[in-house]
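User: What would this chain look like folded?
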Amino acid sequence: MTQHTEPDWSTFVRERVDARLVAFFETKREQTRRLSPRGVEMVDATAALTLRGGKRLRPLVLAAAYSAVAPQGNLEDCIEAGASLELLQSYLLIHDDWMDRDDERRGGPAVHTTFREPGRDVHIADCLGVLTGDLAGTYAWELMAQAPFPKWRRDEGLEAFSTLQIEVYLGQHLDVLADSDVARMHHLKTGSYTVRGPAALGAILADANPDQVLALTGWADPLGEAFQLRDDLLGTFASAATGKPGDDLRHGKRTGLIVEAEQRLAGDAAGLGRLAKVFGNAEASDAQVADVMDLLTVCGARAALEERCAELRDVALGVLDGGALEPLGCERLRSLALRLTDRDR
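Assistant: Here's the prediction, encoded as structure tokens.
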């Protein structure tokens, strides 16, 4: 069996997932040329987004969960499913960028904007973006179907992959509606496909027992919420290097940060007024955004989310002390817990 030391295991997973994706896209280009040569532009757009950056956190969560159950197992068994999760993320990002009217992603153009060539109708270009997202989602299913689940758990693995997608769509529905149940939205939209779903898939690949599944769920659930809260903070307080400080404010995203601020500003008409001038206002000036960022800090909303992130991380880490999971995997899960909650992009 192949053994990997820290941090060599994470490098191995990232490099093998990237290599699998490169080979997969080459195969798809050839298939598409035979079916419809013009369609290669959709394959190219999917490949460009998928291979341009990305932290490969979801394959890493899957692989760490796998090793927490089967420390003597071969991490190569995680690569097909890990690459599938990256394609699923591309699918979700492509549609999400179009819904949010974001024109950039990972330091390059959002997929729907790549089709806005001179002389091409914007609506047609955006339709091609949506179709490209659909294609990426189908590719994700194709790779997941090739994952080496134990024969007696293959149906369970594919059902877990289906479940995490359904949860994402329901969470996105709440996000689009700016629903007040932000905690539910976080649990469904982010927790499902970022942490809980990948951990479940890793557990099934390793043929985990019920106690191990329970422990991995206990680790994953609080981290899914913490990951989204960190995203909420970055969406407002990100450094200029990320390219989107204040974006969530202008887009009117009802994040955990906004909910916390509204609760703390209840009765403060002036403060709520300052927030209202910027929230959902795409034309808000940098000065107005900076003013609201200061407001969110002074009212304590920012610190409250930082504290909540730390609390959720500690809950997840505490689960690893329960003895149900193997020490090697626990170390990898601890490392990932810190990466998921303390990231700056």
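Strands lie at 104-105, 108-109. If you want, I can go into more detail on any region.
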